[in-house]
Amino acid sequence: MSEVQVVRSAERGRWRNEWLESRQSFPATGNFDHARYAHGMLLIHNEDFVDAGEGFDTHQHRDTEIITWVLEGTVVHQDSQGHSGLIHPGLAQRMSAGTGILHSEKNGAGRAERQRLHVVQMWVPPDTPGSVPGYQEMDIGDALRRNELLTVASGMERYRNDTAIGLGNRFAAFHAARLDAGSAIQVPDAPHGHVFIARGSVEFEGSGILEQGDAVRLTATGGQQVRAHTDAEILIWEMHAVAV
Fold first, then answer.
1. Nearest to 165, CA basis, from 151, 178, 179, 177
2. Coil, strand or helix: which one is 186?
3. 3-class SS at 36?
4. Rounded to 5 degrees, what are φ and ψ at 71?
5. Coil, strand or helix: which one is 9?
6. Beta-carbon count within 10 A of 112 CB
7. How far apart are CA 157 and CA 180, in angstroms?
8. Sheet holding 215-221, edge to edge
9. Which fold has domain 3-239?
10. Would you list the DSSP string of 91-145?
11. Model pTM?
12. In principle, which of 71, 164, 180, 198 could form an S-S bond with 233, CB 3.0–4.6 Å?
């Protein structure tokens, strides 16, 4: 049975400490059974605001495909596989935790700069647990300015030649679009979909106006038109299986 569920920004879970505000579409903080609350393959979808000079100290992940998408500011990434650098808006980044990887993520701005980091982090499970950890990044900022849906990360065969970076999940694809006001895209048709309004506002066919932070969870449907009401940035997951 097809379903279109609108989740307003204010309906998400929130977690806050002295330097972090985390808006969580699925239970994340303290949750050790992510698949229980997942939608399709999407285990975690956190929109985080991190104060200047702050961030997550070194910690471990296992058997998770992690996409980090920066909206404002920069993330300083370092991991136990020797990868380091700055993740900025328009840079697609994926970390495959595999058998285990240690990493840290911090706001690239020093305290004196007072630049808050605004970032979305998303997790899906890998096809094969216990794989070798991996990392990939690519600057796709220019491609995002075309008022079209761009396949950012995927392990699906259909996107093999059209994706910016790989994903160790053959049932999922992550798409993004930056739209000028009045421009429109269509949601891919899939058993499960997740549409997130990262910036601006849009009109979602059949559901009306969606604002920044709102999302739509789709089941057994797709093809809806998303038209930018203002300049907007849209993040879409297309998924053809469920997490277990």
1. 151
2. strand
3. helix
4. -100, -35
5. helix
6. 8
7. 30
8. 3-7, 215-221, 190-199, 232-239, 172-179, 150-154, 165-166
9. Jelly Rolls (2.60.120)
10. EEEEEE-TT-EEEEEEESS-GGG---EEEEEEEE--SSTTPPPEEEEEE-TTGGG
11. 0.96
12. 198
Q: Pick the closest to residue 46 from 213, 190, 244 (CA basis).
A: 213
Q: Provide the edge-to-edge strand list for the sheet that holds 55-61.
A: 55-61, 101-107, 75-79, 84-87
Rg over CA atoms, the chain: 17
Q: Domain residue spans in the chain?
A: 3-239
What backbone torsions phi and psi does residue 68 show, to the nearest 5 degrees?
A: -110, 125
From CA 244, how far away is CA 233, in angstroms rounded? Answer: 30
pLDDT tens-digit series, residues 205-241: 999 999 999 999 999 999 999 999 999 999 999 999 9
- The larger pLDDT score, comparing residue 49 to residue 145, is at 49
Q: Do 126 and 65 form a contact (C-beta atoms < 8 A)?
A: yes
* Joined tokens for residue 45: 């979808």
